[in-house]
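Q: How would the structure tokens look for this protein?
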Amino acid sequence: VQYRFEDNLQSFDQFFLEPSFAYDLKKGWSLKAEHRVRFSRQQGYSRPEYSQRTTVSLGYEVDVMTDFELSVRNALQYGYDRFDSELFHYRNDLINRTKVKTDYKVFGTAIELSVGLEAFYHLNQEDGAIIDKWRAGFGMEYEFSRKVAVSFDYLFDKETYWERGEGNSQIFAVKFSYKL
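A: Here is the predicted structure in token form.
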């Protein structure tokens, strides 16, 4: 579950419900599949907008030092980004996402700090495949137990190619996770 405040911190903009399945492969490799349903409030509209997307990703993590971990994730995402709330609609985006992230586990605590950079390669754009967005961010996660965690993240989202010109978003996210 994730809440986002994009326009300002006094208004609720988006809520995500994102069940996922992750499987650890051999020696730092992992495979993940997730399906996101987004409920968003657009300014000037009283009813929320519903949309969805599906993502499959392959990741690799390596311990750089005792408390540091470096990860690289490549994901193929299909879904809602700009056009339609129907999952299998021809106008939905097909995006390759590549993310590099480092995590720091604060010694003796349940706190983990992170910083990352991600590029979005839009594969089915009308003018041809392009890198149309990048995102940089940092965050903090607190693990209450092996199964329950809460995290707070800041993301700067830069769209470089968009129908209405370039767009920037500053995203403050609060995430709650429960592992089965």
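The first strand starts at residue 2 and ends at 5.

Residues 3 and 149 are 15 Å apart (CA to CA).

Upvote if useful.
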